[in-house]
């Protein structure tokens, strides 16, 4: 049974695919009407977008499947792969546009009925503005990189279309037809930038690159809810898979805490983090203290303290990602 988030993701990507097919029909019609290189570039990008969106449909449906025996952490990483494929397709389309544009600059181009073509491309661009913002918003709401990537691609397509409209208006008023393939070249270089950016984000996700925003959320949450008997926290690690965030770290507690008391802390911390980072899964390795840690410990109720608290070590990024205060306290 799919939860609300997954239903929203699937609904959004199907809307994207349906609208993208409509946009492609409009752009292809505009190209056959005008023969414009710039409109050809725009239409080719839409072809690529439909291919990439079809891939995104598959990836989002697969990512909603729960973990199984062969994928213990779920299937969420397919969304990074999908975003990478979309970026690759964008770059391939840009290369084809560059080739066609240069050919038209050298051999000349014949265009007609630019007024109708310009109107159609403008309408397509406005539709894509609405669709792109919708997809990015839903992608952020559901923590779906595939939806965000698709939305950014659609927005790039819309900005491209709007730029082409202004260029074609310039052609209409000046009758300098060479402007048309030059516009197409600018379109190509713009979408190459988008494609490279998507590839970069995809590789970063597949390589479990640190998300600085999530790291700050974790650190701020732990600091704001820190208990006096949380003596030391270290070796913080986390990674994302679609909307899920897997977090683990070591926490040092007083050595006399029972298993029940430690387990209670585990549940409490997991709940605290989930309130700030939905769909997070927290695993804690508990270490126990020794006399060397008394000077770092704020737990005033401790009855076995050998030394007063005297050294404050802030729980900042360097501390939490690093080793224990005293490595001798680390229990493997």
Topology:
Blueprint: H1 4-34, H2 37-63, H3 78-107, H4 114-141, H5 145-174, H6 179-206, H7 212-224, E1 232-241, E2 244-253, H8 259-276, E3 280-288, H9 317-321
Your description of this structure?
By secondary structure, the chain is mostly helical. It has 2 domains: 4-206, Cation efflux protein transmembrane domain (Alpha-lytic protease prodomain-like, Up-down Bundle); 212-329, 2-Layer Sandwich (Alpha-Beta Plaits). Helix content is 63%, strand content 9%. The protein has 9 helices and 3 strands. It has a 3-stranded mixed beta sheet with strand order 1-2-3. Strand 1 and strand 2 (244-253) form a beta hairpin. Helix 7 (212-224) packs across helix 8 (259-276). The radius of gyration is 27 Å and the shape is elongated. It starts with a helix and ends in an 11-residue tail after the last helix. Mean pLDDT is 85; it is low at 328-332.
Distance between the termini: 39 Å
* Biggest beta sheet attributes: 3 strands, mixed
Q: At the first level of CATH, what is the class of the largest domain?
A: Mainly Alpha
CATH topology of the largest domain: Alpha-lytic protease prodomain-like
CATH H-level name of the largest domain... which superfamily? Cation efflux protein transmembrane domain
DSSP helical segment count? 9
- Structural class by sheet pairing and helices: mainly alpha
Low-pLDDT regions: 328-332
Q: What is the second-level CATH architecture of the largest domain?
A: Up-down Bundle
Based on Cα principal axes, name the global outline. Answer: elongated
Q: Please give the share of residues in helix.
A: 55-70%
Over the alpha carbons, how many angstroms does the gyration radius reach? Answer: 27 Å
């Amino acid at each position: 049974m799919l939860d609300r988030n997954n239903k929203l993701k699937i609904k959004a990507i199907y809307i994207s695919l349906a609208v993208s097919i409509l946009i492609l029909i409009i752009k292809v019609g505009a190209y056959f009407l005008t023969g414009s290189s710039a409109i050809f570039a725009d239409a080719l990008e839409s072809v690529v977008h439909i291919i990439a969106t079809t891939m995104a449909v598959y990836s989002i449906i697969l990512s909603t499947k729960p973990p199984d025996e062969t994928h213990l952490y779920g299937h969420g990483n397919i969304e990074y792969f999908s975003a990478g494929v979309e970026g690759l397709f964008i770059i391939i389309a840009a290369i084809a546009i560059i080739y066609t544009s240069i050919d038209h600059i050298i051999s000349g181009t014949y265009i007609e009925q630019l007024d109708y073509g310009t109107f159609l491309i403008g309408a397509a661009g406005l539709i894509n503005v609405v669709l792109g913002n919708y997809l990015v918003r839903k992608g952020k709401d559901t923590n779906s990189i595939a939806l965000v990537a698709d939305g950014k691609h659609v927005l790039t397509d819309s900005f491209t279309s709007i730029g082409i409209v202004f260029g074609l208006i310039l052609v209409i008023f000046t009758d300098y037809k060479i402007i048309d393939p030059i516009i197409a070249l600018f379109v190509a270089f713009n979408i190459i930038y988008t494609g490279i950016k998507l590839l970069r984000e995809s590789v970063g996700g597949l390589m479990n690159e640190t998300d600085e925003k999530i790291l700050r959320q974790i650190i701020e949450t732990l600091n704001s809810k820190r208990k006096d008997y949380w003596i030391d926290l270290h070796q913080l690690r986390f990674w994302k898979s679609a909307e899920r965030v897997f977090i683990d770290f070591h926490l040092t507690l007083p050595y006399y805490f029972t298993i029940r008391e430690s387990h209670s802390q585990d549940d409490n911390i997991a709940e605290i983090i989930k309130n700030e980072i939905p769909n997070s899964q927290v695993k804690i390795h508990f270490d126990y203290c020794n006399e060397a840690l008394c000077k770092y410990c704020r737990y005033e109720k401790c009855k076995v303290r050998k030394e007063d608290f005297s050294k404050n070590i802030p729980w900042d990024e360097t501390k939490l990602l690093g080793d224990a205060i005293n490595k001798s306290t680390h229990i493997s």
